[in-house]
Amino acid sequence: MSGSGIRSAAYGPVPADTTEDVRTRGAGVSTQVAVLPVGSFEQHGPYLPLATDTLVACAIAREIATAYPVHLLPPVTIACSHEHAAWPGTVSISSVTLHAVVRDIAASLRRSGVEALVVVNGHGGNYVLGNVVQESSARGERMALFPAPEDWEAARVRAGVATSLLTDMHAGEIETSILLHAHPEMVRPGYESADFVADDRRHLLTVGMSAYTDSGVIGRPSLGSAEKGKELLAGFADSFGTYFSMLTSPDGTTSTAGAERG
Questions:
Q1: Above 70 in pLDDT, residue 9?
Q2: What is the mean pLDDT of residues 39-54?
Q3: H or E element, residue 181
Q4: Which residues contact 14 (CB under 8 A, 6 or more apart)?
Q5: Cα Rg for the chain, rounded, in angstroms?
Q6: Pick from 64, 163, 192, 207: most CB atoms within 10 A?
Q7: pLDDT averaged over the chain?
Q8: What is the DSSP string of 43-65?
Q9: Quick check: 255 pLDDT over 80?
Q10: Within a 10 A sphere around the Cβ of 105, how many other Cβ atoms?
Q11: Interval 142-187: pLDDT, tens
């Protein structure tokens, strides 16, 4: 997508837009699309911060906002991390609360003329976000959840990430790579020797993460690199084109060709 309203400036912890920026960007598109990063505040081993999932979601959302004329929102920083409760620092809210927060944000956006919302999810345990999108779409509202598993897989292959999505479950190669690229100052020493694999996690929702890992890590963070992180984010921006086309088309149908990036 080319044209006005696409950002090239760096971001701080939250978007720096003014109300005039939003008005100008909205005037240049037929359908306004907002992007909401949703993360978590949970353990990510001894070398990644509790805010890792939020930082990952924000990095993806920022990459999208540099390529498409979207309304970038500040993140939801605490979500559904109950499976990590055994580790100090983890904080959760209920799925009912997260559902209500996202639903209320979408309703507020529609009242201000932003018709579509993309929820960028950085935490696999936020299962309820899929229900929010299903229910909203059934009501005729324009909403999408990003990235889908297929988008993660396409980005993984593009970036040369060696670990499968099954094995790369938590604080592994993907998350470490994205933070090494986007926030290297937040990655502490230790990831180089923290690899741990536990592919059979069938009872995770019942017994929690602590039944499968002592360190909190499941994956191969030692394989992470800043270059892989950069390519992962570029892959997500490419995948987003189809979502943008779908949400901005008059009939809401998917364009397999995607959208032209600026």
A1: no
A2: 98
A3: helix 173-182
A4: 74, 75
A5: 18
A6: 64
A7: 92
A8: -BTBTB-TTHHHHHHHHHHHHHH
A9: no
A10: 17
A11: 999 999 999 999 999 999 999 999 999 999 999 999 999 999 999 9
Q: Check if the beta carbon of residue 156 is closer than 8 Å to that of residue 228.
A: no
CA atoms of 20 and 17, how far apart (whole Å): 8
Question: Hey, what are 70's tokens?
Answer: 């979207």
Residue 182's φ and ψ, nearest 5 degrees, are: -85, -30
Can you tell me the mean pLDDT for 97-113?
97
Residue 8 has pLDDT above 50, yes or no: no
- Using DSSP's 3-state secondary structure scheme, residue 257 falls into coil
Query: What CA–CA distance (Å, rounded) separates 160 from 173?
Result: 11
Confidence of residue 29 (pLDDT cuts 50, 70, 90): confident
User: What span, in angstroms and rounded, lies between the C-alpha atoms of 192 and 204?
Assistant: 26
Alpha-carbon gap, residue 130 to 153, rounded angstroms? 18
Residue 226: pLDDT above 80?
yes
* Residue matched to tokens 């992470």: 224
| Beta carbons of 174 and 232 less than 8 angstroms apart | yes
The angle that helices 52-67 and 173-182 make with each other, rounded to 10 degrees, is 60
Dihedral, CA of residue 230, residue 22, residue 116 and residue 94, to nearest 10:
70
Q: What whole-number distance in Å separates Cα of residue 143 and Cα of residue 33?
A: 9
CA distance 212 to 192: 20
What gap in Å lies between CA 216 and CA 196, rounded to an integer?
9
One-letter amino acid at 192 equals E
Residue type, 80: C
Q: Model-level pTM? A: 0.92
